[in-house]
Amino acid sequence: MPGKTDLSELNCSLARTLAIVGDWWTLLIVRDACIGVRRFGDFQDSLGIAKNILATRLQQLCAAGIMARSGPERRPLYQLTEKGRALLPAMVALMQWGDRFASANKPPVIVTDTSGRPIAPVTLRNNRGDVASEDVRFAAGPGANARTRAFLDALRTAEMKRDV
Amino acid sequence: MPGKTDLSELNCSLARTLAIVGDWWTLLIVRDACIGVRRFGDFQDSLGIAKNILATRLQQLCAAGIMARSGPERRPLYQLTEKGRALLPAMVALMQWGDRFASANKPPVIVTDTSGRPIAPVTLRNNRGDVASEDVRFAAGPGANARTRAFLDALRTAEMKRDV
DNA sequence: CTGTATCCTTAAAGATACTG
DNA sequence: CAGTATCTTTAAGGATACAG
Q1: Which of A57, A111, A112, B32 has a Cα-to-Cα distance from B152 of 20 to 30 A?
Q2: Tens digits of per-residue pLDDT, A46-93?
Q3: Which carries the bigger pLDDT value, residue B44 or residue B159?
Q4: Interval B67-90 mean pLDDT
């Protein structure tokens, strides 16, 4: 992105994730890989992406350890690593949001287990069960720096002051 | 993004979601909103984003129904709508991935319920319990067009032919 | 404080041609 | 088929100044 800020500096795991997979094509490539695409040309056909862009993205994904290249040098296979497959819950959650709000509840693609049983809507849970989105809170974690701590403190204080 | 493809055309809910919230700043703004940020200036301070960019994003988010503007015209509040809060599972899943792979398991921010109980790692489940990422499959859904169907069929056939 | 209006820079995206 | 090498376009991001 033009003249941009380095999101990975932001002391925020979401920002760091987006700095790695947050651009327009990367998650779609990962999605295709999940579905079973492995060849350069198949990614290209599936996405309608320019070859140079695709080549760059695949290199980045391999460098990031999200995908791995194997097979013949002339006609390699690109496959997800464990780290790449770990993106699945996030990807499916994004898909489900799109199913609901951007595809009018008519999913172009449905997600199932090996027996065809549908994957349930992704929810947030604690050790007792689902947690509603209104009940979710954020707090400083072990990786928080002073700025992040101050920021969260300030917010908490502001809420105390009855901001509504 | 420069000279770009319209992802929303892709007959894919993930692409459509990314077309709405898939740029570098939008999800971070949503995250801040989740945490409790509501003021223009607070978003700006938190993210270090330029004012014009922030203004554009907030407009887009409001237009998309993800955030809503309220309060005095001179000093409005920006808050998530139901549609916006529905992004939480996806956001948390992305954060968790970053916690693990981009923050060395030292989360800058932790997510809890109202009692401080931690939110568990987001997983994929069917009606019986967790589904491992290797056991996830994709199939054409009610919103699939001919191209998507053909694509998924072709992949399935290719796998039959013993690709791996 | 919350924007809007300009201007500028830059690099991402795409098209095309070429190579092994 | 799987790239690499260029070239061009273009619009996103950012800085600044200004306004209500």
Answers
A1: A57
A2: 999 999 999 999 999 999 999 999 999 899 999 999 999 999 999 999
A3: B44
A4: 96
- Is A112 near chain B, with CB under 8 Å? yes
Distance CA B48, CA B38 (A): 15
Taking Cα atoms as reference points, which of A103, A105, A87 lies closest to residue A31? A87
Cβ atoms of B78 and B68 closer than 8 Å: yes
Q: What is the CATH number of domain B1-86?
A: 1.10.10.10
Where does the pLDDT of residue B155 fall: very low under 50, low under 70, confident under 90, or very high at 90 and above? Answer: confident
Q: How far is B155 from chain A (nearest CA, A)?
A: 7
B55 touches strand C (CB under 7 A): yes
State the distance between the two ends of chain B, measured CA to CA, in whole angstroms.
35
Q: Where in chain A is the domain with CATH 1.10.10.10?
A: 1-86
Question: Is nucleic acid strand C under 7 Å from A162's C-beta?
Answer: no
The phi and psi torsions of B126 (rounded to 5 degrees) equal -110, -165
Asked if strand D comes closer than 7 Å to B45 Cβ, the answer is no
- Measured CA to CA, the distance from residue A61 to residue B46 in angstroms comes to 29
Cα–Cα distance measured from residue B78 to residue B39, given in angstroms and rounded to the nearest whole number: 6
Minimal Cα–Cα distance from B125 to chain A, Å?
Answer: 6
Place of tokens 């819950």: A89
Cα separation, B36 vs B85, whole angstroms: 12
